[in-house]
Amino acid sequence: xxxxxxxxxxxxxxxxxxxxxxxxxxxxxxxxxxxxxxxxxxxxxxxxxxxxxxxxxxxxxxxxxxxxxxxxxxxxxxxxxxxxxxxxxxxxxxxxxxxxxxxxxxxxxxxxxxxxxxxxxxxxxxxxxxxxxxxxxxxxxxxxxxxxxxxxxxxxxxxxxxxxxxxxxxxxxxxxxxxxxxxxxxxxxxxxxxxxxxxxxxxxxxxxxxxxxxxxxxxxxxxxxxxxxx
Length: 230
Hints:
The protein is an alpha+beta fold and 230 residues long. The protein has helices at residues 3-8, 10-15, 20-30, 34-53, 70-102, 104-108, and strands at residues 123-129, 136-144, 147-155, 161-169, 174-182, 199-205, 212-219, 224-229. Helices cover 35% and strands 28% of the residues. Helix 4 packs antiparallel against helix 5 (70-102).
C-alpha cells in the first residue's frame, strides 16, 4: 500500500477500526512518520468525544441521530479498539513525537562509531527558520575523532533546487557537509501530497564542534536559504 494511503489511515487507526493486519502496517509506518504522529494526536480529542457517547449519562447530546444501529456499532468498535490498543498507541505516539523533537539527532545516533569511543557521544542540537525564505532547519552535531558528524532536517523548501549544507568556522573557513537535490514538490510542504515529509540527511566536517560558528543551507548558485547558529 502506498505511503499516501498510510497517511489516510490515521483517522481509522485513531478510532480503532482498522483490522489487525492494517493496524500493524500503520504502526510500522507511524514509527517513522512525524506527519502521522501529529495527525494522530489531533484525533485524540475526537476519540474521547466518541467514547463519551458510549456511556449513558455522559451528558452528550447528538444534534441529529444517525441511522439506527450505525452509531452503536461504531461506538462498540471504538470502545473495543481503545481497550485493546490504547496503551500501545500512546507508546507509538510518544516514540513518533520523539522523532519530531529529535529529528536529525536520532539518525545521527545510528551512524557507526556513535558509541565506539570516537568522540564523547554528546549530541548538540540547533534550529532556525529564515523569515524571508520560510525554510526551517535543525542540525544535530556530534563530536568525532576526525571532526564533527552532522545530521540535518530541512522543511518548507520548494524545488526544484540543488542545495548544500555548509559548516562555517569561527575563523571564516567553510566546509561542505553534504549536498542534495530538492524535487519540484519540495520537502516538508504541508498540504502537498507526497511531499509532506522533511528532508533528513547526514554528513561530516573536519571542523570540531568548538570550531564551528554556524551552518548555512545554500543553493549551489550561492543563494542562502537559512542560517543555523551553532
